[in-house]
């Protein structure tokens, strides 16, 4: 049986440039849809967060406008309720090894910009997955977590990798770009990523060696299927 490690932010808020905190958490579709697909494929799923804190869903991601309509919002909410016991039984990121899994998956939401972006334990896990050839899939705002990865010489392991994330343009359209302390795309490019953005809010996935990245919530299914294909 194949296995996948979900690494999910434990943050419930995202600190903006003016010091105020924007309520957030994981984006519903970005966790629920891949979780459903891996489950249907018969994969064993482990969910980890920093400190083994139960992750919080971003309430905004369950609003009909954000989720794709009332029926889709209800579907996502019902799925998350069906796995609530799994979300309550998460393990600590510090207690897991990438080598024990066939793939590692990071769902987004703004929350990773608050904690995973500076979590060196998570960064070391990502580096290990990269070095050991384990597919590492990172979605939407979760590529912020890549920023915490470092080699012993201080270099960034993902420099030169082709990748995508929630784009600066999408952040502007969403109305939060001017309020943010920093933007994911800008930071990735600044570290040396070969960034490829697709059309705003349309499915877009990039794969470069063992790194798979999805641009936005609409990319959730495509990214999960790419992982399934990568593991075979």
From TrEMBL:
GO function terms (MF aspect): glyoxalase III activity; peptidase activity
Q: Which residues form the DJ-1/PfpI domain?
A: 27-228
Query: Which protein family is it in?
Result: Belongs to the peptidase C56 family. HSP31-like subfamily.
Protein name per Swiss-Prot or TrEMBL = Intracellular protease/amidase
Supply the PANTHER family for this chain: GLUTATHIONE-INDEPENDENT GLYOXALASE HSP31-RELATED, PROTEIN/NUCLEIC ACID DEGLYCASE DJ-1-RELATED
For the biological process aspect of GO, one term held by this record is:
proteolysis
Q: Which UniProt keywords apply?
A: Hydrolase, Lyase, Protease, Stress response
Its cellular-component GO annotations read:
cytoplasm
Q: Which organism is it from?
A: Sanguibacter keddieii (strain ATCC 51767 / DSM 10542 / NCFB 3025 / ST-74)
């Amino acid at each position: 049986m194949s296995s996948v490690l979900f690494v999910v932010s434990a943050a419930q808020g995202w600190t903006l440039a003016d010091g105020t905190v924007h309520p957030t958490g994981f984006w519903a579709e970005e966790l629920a849809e891949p979780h459903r697909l891996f489950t249907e494929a018969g994969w064993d799923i482990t969910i980890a967060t920093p400190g083994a804190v139960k992750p919080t869903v971003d309430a905004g991601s369950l609003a009909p406008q954000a989720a794709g309509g009332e029926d889709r919002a209800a579907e996502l909410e019902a799925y998350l309720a069906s796995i609530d016991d799994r979300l309550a039984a998460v393990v600590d990121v510090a207690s897991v090894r990438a080598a024990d899994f066939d793939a590692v998956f990071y769902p987004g939401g703004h929350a990773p910009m608050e904690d995973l972006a500076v979590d060196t334990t998570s960064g070391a896990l990502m580096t290990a997955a990269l070095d050991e050839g384990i597919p590492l899939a990172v979605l939407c705002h979760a590529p912020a977590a890549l920023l915490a990865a470092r080699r012993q010489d201080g270099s960034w392991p993902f420099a030169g990798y082709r990748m995508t994330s929630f784009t600066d343009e999408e952040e502007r359209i969403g109305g939060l770009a001017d309020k943010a302390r920093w933007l994911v795309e800008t930071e990735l490019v600044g570290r040396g990523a070969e960034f490829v953005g697709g059309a705003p809010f349309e499915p877009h996935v990039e794969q470069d060696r063992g790194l798979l990245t999805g641009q936005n919530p609409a990319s959730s299914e495509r990214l999960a299927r790419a992982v399934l294909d990568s593991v075979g």
